[in-house]
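User: Hey, my collaborator sent me this sequence without any context and asked if I could get a structure. I don't really work with proteins. Can you help?
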Amino acid sequence: TAPIIGGEGTATYTLKNIESDDVVIASTSSHITAQKSAAGTISYTITANYGKSARTGEIVLNSPSTGATATIVVTQAAAAFSATPTTVSLKAEANSTATFTVTSTYAATIAVADATKWSVTPASIEGGTSAVTVTVKALTANETADAITGAITITRTADGEKLTVTASQAGVSQGGSEPVVVLSEQFDNKSTSDSS
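Assistant: No problem. I've predicted the 3D structure and written it out in structure-token form, which is a compact way to encode the shape of the chain:
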């Protein structure tokens, strides 16, 4: 098994009735570079797997004198890159917030389309196996009757792959603000006097 993010690894094999110097690397998959490092050991370098599916590669060994072959299978797990949920709702008031999570094997940046209306924290993640909570904030109040939407883009730094989360700020008629009822009373201030 090779690391998802790529790098160096080793694989071992056992020789039976074949001299160690009679083994050559016949071929490798396109994302693997391999070389013999010692008798019974292959050193290889593998590129990062950005895909959503596990990836396998092969290192094929051959004995020219005997015609024997052996295949070493190298497996990489799938890369994680997701956001949940993909739509978040905020109240109409300024500074209202909502959260979503991002899981990414690799480092990524997080940005809003209109920085005058929205902000996100954090603006980047280092990557790994744990989900990171992202907070989106509405910087201004929505004083209209219609909801305001904005796009939040998560970009994987290594290859530019993108995810989009949509933020929706409620309008004032959509329950985003609490209604205020003002009661007023009128009094008759006329003074009364006894007549004699």
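In plain terms: The mean pLDDT is 89. You can pass these tokens on to your collaborator as they are.
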